[in-house]
Design goal:
The complex is a heterotrimer of chains A (333), B (494) and C (331).
Chain A lengths: L6 H8 L1 H16 L6 H26 L7 H17 L24 H26 L3 H20 L9 H8 L1 E2 L2 E2 H19 L1 H11 L1 H6 L4 H27 L10 H12 L10 H20 L4 H21 L3
Antiparallel strand pairs in A: 1-2
Helix pairs in contact in A: 2-13, 3-8, 3-11, 3-12, 3-13, 4-5, 4-6, 4-11, 5-6, 5-11, 7-11, 8-9, 9-11, 12-13, 12-14
Chain B lengths: L5 E10 L2 E11 L4 E5 L6 H8 L7 E6 L2 E3 L3 H6 L2 E4 L11 H6 L11 H15 L14 H10 L8 E5 L7 H16 L3 E5 L3 H7 L2 E6 L2 E7 L5 H9 L11 H4 L5 E10 L2 E9 L3 E5 L6 H9 L6 E6 L2 E3 L4 H6 L2 E4 L3 H5 L6 H6 L7 E2 L2 E2 L1 H15 L15 H14 L4 E5 L7 H16 L3 E6 L2 H7 L2 E6 L2 E7 L5 H9 L2
Parallel strand pairs in B: 3-8, 3-9, 6-7, 7-8, 13-20, 13-21, 16-19, 19-20
Antiparallel strand pairs in B: 1-2, 1-4, 4-5, 9-10, 11-12, 11-14, 14-15, 17-18, 21-22
Helix pairs in contact in B: 8-18, 14-15
Chain C lengths: L1 H32 L6 H26 L7 H16 L17 H25 L4 H18 L6 E2 L3 H8 L1 E2 L2 E2 H19 L1 H11 L1 H6 L4 H27 L1 E2 L7 H11 L11 H20 L4 H27 L1
Antiparallel strand pairs in C: 1-4, 2-3
Helix pairs in contact in C: 1-12, 2-7, 2-10, 2-11, 2-12, 3-4, 3-5, 3-10, 4-10, 6-10, 7-8, 8-10, 11-12, 11-13
The chains are: A mainly alpha (333), B alpha/beta (494), C mainly alpha (331).
């Protein structure tokens, strides 16, 4: 293996995902005429925005060597709450689906701005819960977030009766529907979130501590870094990002479907792994997330174009996940 | 004379079955280099751990700046007690600058990477070390990693700096730099605790020296009042009388070559040649870091052998994994018993039968009756103190854990036993028992290698002694020709 | 001093008998909540529920014992359920068809389903054991992959109608006792024998308890992982067959909660999430506890959605409480 480590090897390794994106792009632009339509690119970017926002929060968590399975459910819960609050309900307990088409007039409980913050805080609160149980009780993050995943979705279903909800506040409609020259506004928002995350990771004490704790927790502890605080805050960030993603999603689709967010965990972990962030922590950055998300988005888009159902897409994504974890491991991540 | 910065009074530290420190008094004065010497296991590490708050003393008190303190790591750090350890604790994937500044990041919320590099370069330049601050620690040499640990001192506000074998991985030029740094620290009125096995260093930069032996302070004196031989005497203690180590049974045994290693090279070991004859107890003495555990692991197949051969009863054998070693009859009793040796959640019986479990089968299934009777016999013969063979091994004391591992290899009828620090953390009574068991094993014709940094142990148990220093065998002695001074001179003065 | 001793004793009693204590208190609480709990019909229902979870949780226990986890149990059960019906409707699988068309004799079909469960398990175990990829990542991927396959095979439709033998196994009874209980008992005995009377069992415990030390004693990581996940896969496939019998369909949507429930059962049963510790008897009690909790949900006609809330919260609380105890033991 030593002889393989020429300069080309390193260049390839660091940029493998970019190569993949590029090749997929070029290949399918030629093969499939639907692929190169502007509308399609807009779809890809829109999907990237939502998956990307979730993955951005997930980046903090994975860099610490942890994992957050609850992001899909937090997305769903935040979006559900937002729509309910916009209808004027605080909590609802509706009859099961199939009864009535639910379109209510906008009647927000509070100014829209506050509702926005509140939804994000709900996500953050769940993230905090995850973080505290992981760092204080020492429960593996997979198990805790599995529990949160179940119960957050349970709350979402309960308060909405699992009905699709069509009431989306104006500001979200605006954000979600605006497209500038083929680029959806939500994509730009995601880029903004990504930039903020990048700044945090590179230029703040907290961000640097994430790399320290993720890279060698004992060394970090030995110099006085507060492991509990770092881990909890990362989970908090993941929750907030998932909530934000939920809001962007209903803005884009103009409806809140109860099954939103299912399978998001797979996409998010695939995006993170494909992008090159190490599952054991301490290696990688937001550029990796960017690359990984774009990659998964393109793949999802292609699968959609070829009319592959969501459940079947699982097979492809699952296999990709395993392959890429292996590939990254061989490449030394 | 002004009050010392830190005064440790009457410190005693006990672990289950072992007393690591006994009524130790140690103080650190401002602007002074107080050296701490003693063989491995004498209690230096324990004392330092108490000083930095990681252990709490069983008895005694610690007085810092005149106030009695109940230390924990956080408090000790805040009081300015800083330790530079032997093994670097760094984050491999971050840069040199980041690792140095981890101790005290500039800025409350925001950090400026460029500024970090600048500050680091500046300070490193001032203290005379040239390091590329942007390099990833992963790509740094051992010496460079040690420099990073040392550089951290200059980004904290220490009152006491503990240098624990700080110069061991460094080259000569860097060592000189460190001595100069120590001078600068002295000028800043910082108290320095200097731990080292290199006696020449002690005499070069030390003001006072305290020697520990078996957990007790043997002497605390100004350097000027001591000479080399005296110091060695304090460290080593009385010479042991050559006991009747070899029983008549073993003496009359035909001393054929059972096990031989030729030209073994495996980082950090170089050109190791070693012979063990049947019924012989061979000792490998070396200080911590000399490569003893690495040698044991290489023989056992845990570590890769880059060059060299191993011969068993004259036949060349290749060992690529522990499975091979076990097949050839080699058994390892590792130094880190809990990590490499035992399965804590399993019982005494399960741990004993593990490597050779297929021998206890009746067709497809385990013969529990046979297992029980065999295990019980070993518990009796080795005097393993446990309520029953079904007791989980994690509840046993250190000495009994060791006996369980020994029983494991005896049960598997392994003929070559590698003991790595056999009585580390073992109580006095069990120590004696284990030595007798080792001798008994040799009496039964097994080849035994004892790796140890405990001089008394080596001289009590072994027939022939190899001295390992920095990865090489530098001396081979028969027991009759060996005494403490000869051996220690080899390792302390190089 | 005296207070300390009483505390010590309470603690010892708790650590040793906590599962039984939880079980007994749970039974009492359930009766208080709903007297129907102690009815004959309810016991039958409870028994069926418990056997399904019980079989799966024994598989989960094995995976956890090696220091891993099997997230794909539910999907494997779904796949097996679909395959069974598919093999029995070979060529004509849409709509309810009176005439079944077997691809092979029934025992062979069973073998195919179980074998596939084992084969996939071997695959995951290989990836985890040889290439050392993280357990949760591989089985998470597996969860989705198998779910997708289960959907594709019948083209997203539900296949109606299975043979009468399977129906008996899944839904029938011998006298008052549901047949699934016998299956559960048999599986429990087999797993009990494996864990206590075979070298494989000891190797699994050893590896889970301390991977490095066990490898230093010649235990093969690959063998341990492959065996554990293969058995887990087979047991999940078995549950799939039971599902098929009970619902009389090949439905890709079954097994949604199976993974979480079996995980809870295994952990409640005293299996250490970090590996190396766990007893069949404990997992059986854990299964009964989980089954009772869900039974109570049914009895109180709790809406499916609030159920999820409670399930999630219970999982978290239980794990947090148990792990605290384990961590102390570990230290």
């Amino acid at each position: 293996m030593k002889s393989l480590k020429t300069p080309y090897f390193y260049f390839f390794r660091e940029n493998i995902t970019i190569f993949m994106i590029f090749s997929l792009f070029v290949a399918f632009s030629i093969i499939n005429s639907d692929f190169c339509k502007l509308e399609n690119f807009t779809n890809i970017l829109a999907y990237s925005a939502i998956l990307g926002t979730v993955s951005t929060g997930m980046t903090f968590v994975v860099l610490l060597g942890m994992f957050d399975l609850s992001v899909g459910s937090i997305l769903c819960l935040a979006a559900t709450l937002q729509t309910l609050w916009s209808m004027g309900y605080f909590i609802l307990y509706l009859p099961p689906p199939g009864s009535i088409m639910f379109v209510k007039e906008l009647n927000p409980l509070l100014p829209e701005f506050l509702l926005f913050i509140l939804s994000l805080l709900v996500g953050g609160a769940l993230g905090l819960l995850n973080g505290i149980i992981v760092s204080y009780f020492g429960v593996p993050s997979i198990i805790v977030t599995l529990g949160t995943m179940i119960f957050a979705r349970g709350i979402a279903y309960t308060i909405s009766g699992a009905n699709p909800l069509y009431t989306v506040p104006h500001y979200l409609r605006y954000i979600g529907q605006t497209v500038i020259g083929g680029v959806p506004l939500i994509f730009l928002i995601w880029l903004g979130v990504l930039t903020i995350a990048g700044v945090i990771l590179k230029y703040t004490k907290f961000g640097r501590q994430i790399y320290q704790v993720g890279g060698n927790p004992e060394a970090a502890y030995a110099v006085g870094v507060n492991l509990t605080l770092v881990r909890t805050l990362a989970m908090f960030a993941s929750g907030v990002c998932a909530a934000l993603a939920g809001l962007l999603m209903i803005g884009r689709t103009l409806v809140m479907h109860p099954h939103y967010g299912i399978g998001m965990e797979l996409d998010a972990i695939a995006a993170v792994v494909v992008g090159g962030i190490s599952l054991s922590g301490g290696k990688g950055g937001i550029l990796n997330t960017l690359a990984g998300v774009l990659c998964i988005s393109i793949i999802t888009n292609l699968l959609n174009l070829y009319a592959v159902e969501a459940i079947v897409q699982y097979i492809v994504k699952g296999i990709i996940l395993i392959i890429f974890v292996l590939v990254m491991k061989i490449l030394g991540r | 004379m002004e009050e010392p910065i830190v005064k440790m009074v009457g410190i005693t530290k006990e672990f289950p079955g072992v007393r690591a420190l006994n009524n130790v008094n140690f103080d650190i004065r401002a602007g002074e280099v107080h050296c701490l010497v003693g063989l491995n296991g004498a209690g230096k590490t324990t004392l330092v751990k108490i000083l930095t708050g990681f252990y709490k003393p069983t008895k005694g008190k610690i007085i810092v700046y005149g106030k009695e303190e109940n230390l924990n790591p956080e408090r000790a750090r805040r009081l300015g007690i800083l330790r530079v350890p032997q093994d670097p604790e760094l984050v491999e994937d971050l840069t040199v600058a980041e690792n140095i500044l981890m101790v005290n990041m500039p800025g409350k919320i925001f950090v400026n990477p460029r500024k970090m590099y600048e500050i680091c370069e500046k300070v490193l330049g001032e203290i005379g070390f040239n390091l590329d601050v942007k390099k990833l620690v992963r790509n740094c040499s051992r010496a460079e990693k040690q420099i990073i640990m040392l550089a951290r001192i200059f980004f904290s506000q220490p009152s006491v700096v503990i240098l624990d074998e700080a110069t061991a991985p460094l080259g000569i030029r860097e060592q000189e730099r460190v001595y100069k740094l120590v001078e600068e620290l002295k000028n800043k009125n910082i108290g320095i605790v200097y731990i080292s096995h290199r006696l020449e260093e002690i005499f070069k930069i030390g003001d006072r020296v305290t020697a520990l032996r078996n957990g007790e302070v043997v002497c605390t004196k100004p350097i000027k009042e001591l000479d080399l031989n005296e110091l060695i005497y304090y460290i080593a203690g009385e010479e042991l009388k050559v006991e009747e180590v070899a029983t008549s049974a073993r003496k009359s045994m035909k001393k054929e070559k059972l096990f031989e290693i030729r030209n073994l090279n495996s980082d950090p070991l170089k050109d190791i040649n070693l012979i063990v004859k049947q019924g012989e107890i061979v000792g490998v003495f070396g200080l911590l870091g000399a490569g003893k555990t690495e040698l044991a692991e290489a023989i056992y197949g845990i570590r890769k052998i880059e060059k060299g051969e191993i011969y068993l009863k004259g036949q060349k054998i290749t060992i690529n994994s522990p499975k091979d070693a076990i097949r050839f009859g080699i058994g390892l009793l590792p130094e880190d018993r809990d990590r490499l040796g035992l399965i804590p959640s399993q019982t005494v019986a399960e741990n004993i039968i593990l490597p050779n479990i297929n021998a206890f089968k009746n067709f497809l299934f385990l013969d529990l009756k046979r297992i029980r009777s065999v295990v019980r016999k070993f518990i009796k013969d080795l005097n393993i103190r446990t309520p029953s063979e079904d007791q989980q091994v994690r509840f046993l004391s250190g000495g009994n854990k060791q006996k369980v591992i020994l029983a494991r290899w005896l049960a598997s009828k392994n003929d070559i036993l590698l003991f790595d620090e056999p009585t580390k953390g073992v109580d006095v009574v069990s120590k004696r028992e284990i030595y007798n068991l080792i001798k008994e094993a040799a009496d039964h014709g097994k080849a035994v290698i004892v790796f140890s940094c405990d001089l008394d142990e080596i001289l009590t148990v072994c027939d022939r002694i190899y001295v390992l220093h920095r990865g090489r065998i530098i001396k081979e002695l028969e027991r009759e020709d060996a005494n403490k001074s000869i051996i220690l001179e080899e390792v302390l003065l190089k | 001093m005296r207070q300390g001793k009483a505390e010590e004793m309470l603690r010892i009693v708790w650590l040793k008998y906590r599962q039984l204590l939880i079980l007994i208190s749970l039974i009492m609480i359930s009766y208080a909540i709903s007297p129907a709990f102690v009815s004959y019909i309810n016991f039958i229902y409870l028994a069926r529920l418990a056997s399904i979870i019980g079989i799966a949780s024994l598989g989960m226990m094995l995976a956890i014992l090696t220091g891993g986890i099997d997230l794909s149990i539910g999907s494997m059960a779904a796949l097996s359920c679909v395959l069974l019906a598919y093999f029995e409707h070979w060529g004509i699988y849409l709509g309810y068809v009176e005439q079944l068309s077997f691809i092979a004799p029934l025992p062979v079909i069973y073998l195919l389903c179980l074998g596939l469960g084992g084969a996939f398990g071997l695959l995951w175990g290989f990836i985890i054991g040889k290439w050392r990829l993280p357990d949760f990542a591989v089985t998470l991927a597996a969860l989705f992959i198998l779910k997708g396959i289960a959907y594709i095979i019948p083209h997203g439709q539900t296949i109606f109608g299975v043979d009468s033998v399977t129906k008996f196994i899944g839904a029938g009874a011998i006298g008052p006792i549901p047949f699934t209980i016998f299956v559960w008992i048999m599986v429990s005995v087999i797993i009990y024998v494996i864990t206590n009377y075979t070298s494989l069992g000891k190797h699994i415990y050893a590896f889970g308890g301390n991977p490095e030390a066990s490898e230093a004693c010649g235990v093969s990581r690959l063998k341990v992982k492959m065996s554990a996940y293969a058995i887990s896969g087979m047991l999940a496939a078995l549950v799939g067959i039971l599902y098929a019998g009970r619902t009389d369909t090949g439905d890709y949507r079954v097994g949604e909660d199976l993974m979480q429930n079996s995980l809870m059962a295994a952990l409640l049963g005293g299996t250490n999430i970090f590996g190396g510790e766990g007893r069949v008897a404990g997992v059986i009690i854990g299964t009964i506890i989980v089954a009772i909790i869900f039974n109570v949900f049914d009895l109180t006609r709790l809406h499916p959605f609030p159920r999820d809330i409670l399930r999630g919260i219970i999982l978290i609380i239980i794990i947090a409480a148990l792990i605290r105890g384990e961590k102390i033991k570990k230290a």
